[in-house]
């Protein structure tokens, strides 16, 4: 039997705001690489493609590879009209997508990924257009939204099948069930070092490359679903990661890399330190960014020095709050002294103040704005940038039920109500004014 043709699709974003902060569908491109590695032909269409051939020229690209998505205002979802802001589809024009689908070789099966739970409307619109062009081709939905809001996805996404969790081990069964084609895996899908590099070569232009050196996180923060999505922490070998970075730089000319890890600095002697040693020794002129928070406690002087030498440009630390009192609610992963030492070490290594940011959780259930304001002040007193991280209620997290009880929206009814732009766990009357004041405080 002839190997099937697989079409992979990255859907539109529907939101109040969106920006390409080193955002690529790494999981979907990983599956594409596995399928291609097993003899199947794979195509990729990206509804978020900033560099689409029909896009206006020149496309804005920052030095670090980031840039704005194209956007088109669309009607607000029902029930969120109170925010009084514009709502948009982020990504390429629908007609461009239709033309791309029609030009694609007829697929035997279509994989669609999903990211934020509250981007569900964009997933639905994407699949609806796919079904206009390929009404008889099975559409398989996976990703974060599919895993965290499985019932909603099965009812509303229009997908023919919704899969949860890591999809690698499910691939042989999915392909067989929907196409009749059988293949035997060449390697253990649980061995991260055996998996091929994600098929980033399928994107239209590589302004940057995402890098994942591990999966999972040893912590179980009350607001985070990482431990639900990944049951254990698994690492790739430093050599495998280095070879991937070297490949994208030498073959595709990529200089900017964004680490997607939830636990980049955990077990440093066997993980990040050997990797940094290889990068420094190579002499490659690279820039690294850490949009996901790094654990403050692991920032030793040695690691800070090596990150600077390796070319790290954007440092983001997971502080959450500058209230270090034992009685404070929430998780206790770092002390005030550890935070202060980490900042001092980064500065001593050579990082400028504007390169270092500390994420502060904001708009949590029951959180008083004064607590956030004090944390902002404390971070600024250390001479670095406070970065507000607005709380998104996420199913399957310890804080989910508390969020449902404190929200003015029915969070369990529709994931669109969990959008952090709505500040769903703050009182409506003063929420947006309060947040505007806090944002202004970060800039003063």
What features would you describe in this structure?
- GO terms for molecular function: 4 iron, 4 sulfur cluster binding; catalytic activity; cobalamin binding; metal ion binding.
- It comes from Desulfocicer vacuolatum DSM 3385.
- The protein has 444 residues and is of the alpha/beta class.
- The chain folds into 2 domains: 175 residues, Cobalamin-binding domain (Rossmann fold), CATH 3.40.50.280; 235 residues, Aldolase class I (TIM Barrel, Alpha-Beta Barrel).
- It is 33% helix and 15% strand.
- Helix 8 runs parallel beside helix 9 and helix 12 packs parallel to helix 14.
- The longest helix is centred in the last third of the chain and has 16 residues.
- The chain starts with a strand and ends with a helix.
- The mean pLDDT is 95.
Layout of strands and helices, then pairs:
Elements: E1 5-10, E2 13-15, H1 26-37, E3 41-46, E4 71-73, E5 88-90, H2 94-103, E6 109-112, H3 120-133, E7 139-141, H4 144-148, H5 150-156, E8 161-162, H6 171-179, E9 209-211, E10 214-215, H7 226-229, E11 234-235, H8 238-252, E12 256-259, H9 272-282, E13 287-289, H10 301-310, E14 312-320, H11 336-349, E15 356-362, H12 369-381, E16 385-390, H13 400-406, H14 428-443
Parallel strand pairs: 1-3, 1-6, 6-7, 7-8, 9-12, 12-13, 13-14, 14-15, 15-16
Antiparallel strand pairs: 2-5, 4-5, 10-11
Helix pairs in contact: 8-9, 9-10, 10-11, 12-14
Overview features:
444 residues, alpha/beta, Rossmann fold, TIM Barrel, 2 domains, 5-stranded parallel β-sheet, 33% helix, Cobalamin-bd
Mean pLDDT across all amino acids: 95
Estimate nothing, just give the exact number of structural domains: 2
Number of strands: 16
Proportion of helical residues = 25-40%
Reported CATH architecture of the largest domain = Alpha-Beta Barrel
């Amino acid at each position: 039997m002839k190997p099937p043709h697989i079409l992979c699709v990255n859907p539109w974003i529907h939101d109040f705001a969106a920006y390409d902060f080193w955002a690529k569908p790494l999981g979907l491109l990983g599956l594409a690489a596995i399928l291609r590695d097993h003899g199947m032909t794979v195509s990729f269409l990206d509804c978020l493609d900033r560099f689409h051939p029909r896009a206006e020229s020149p496309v804005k690209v920052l030095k670090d590879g980031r840039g704005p998505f194209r956007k088109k205002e669309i009607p607000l979802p029902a029930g969120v009209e109170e925010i009084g802001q514009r709502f948009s589809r982020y990504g390429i024009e629908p007609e461009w997508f239709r033309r791309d689908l029609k030009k694609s070789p007829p697929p035997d099966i279509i994989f669609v990924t999903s990211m934020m739970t509250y981007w569900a409307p964009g997933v639905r619109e994407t699949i609806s257009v796919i079904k206009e062009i390929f009404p008889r081709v099975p559409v398989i939905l996976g990703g974060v939204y599919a895993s965290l809001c499985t019932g909603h996805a099965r009812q509303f996404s229009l997908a023919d099948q919704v899969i949860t969790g890591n999809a690698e081990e499910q691939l042989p069964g999915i392909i067989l069930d929907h196409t009749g084609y059988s293949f035997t895996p060449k390697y253990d899908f649980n061995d991260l070092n055996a998996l091929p590099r994600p098929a980033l070569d399928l994107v239209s232009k590589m302004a940057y490359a995402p890098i994942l050196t591990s999966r999972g996180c040893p912590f179980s923060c009350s607001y985070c679903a990482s431990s639900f999505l990944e049951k254990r922490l698994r690492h790739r070998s430093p050599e495998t990661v280095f070879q991937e970075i070297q490949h994208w730089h030498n073959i595709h000319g990529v200089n900017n890399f964004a680490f997607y890890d939830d636990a980049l600095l955990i077990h440093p002697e066997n993980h990040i330190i050997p990797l940094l040693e290889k990068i420094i020794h190579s002499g490659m002129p690279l820039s690294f960014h850490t949009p996901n928070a790094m654990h403050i406690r692991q920032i030793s002087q040695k690691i800070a020095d090596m990150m600077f030498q390796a070319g790290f440009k954007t440092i983001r630390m997971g502080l959450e709050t500058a209230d270090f009192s034992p009685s404070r609610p929430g998780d206790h992963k770092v002390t005030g002294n550890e935070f202060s030492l980490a900042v001092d070490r980064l500065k001593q290594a050579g990082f400028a103040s504007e390169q270092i940011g500390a994420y502060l959780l904001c708009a949590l259930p029951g959180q008083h704005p004064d607590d956030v304001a004090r944390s902002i002040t404390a971070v600024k007193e250390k001479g670095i940038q406070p970065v507000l991280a607005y709380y998104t209620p996420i199913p399957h997290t310890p804080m989910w039920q508390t969020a449902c009880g404190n929200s003015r929206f029915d969070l369990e009814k529709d994931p669109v109500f969990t959008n952090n732009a709505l500040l769903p766990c703050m009182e409506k009357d003063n929420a947006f004014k309060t947040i505007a004041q806090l944002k202004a405080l970060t800039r003063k």
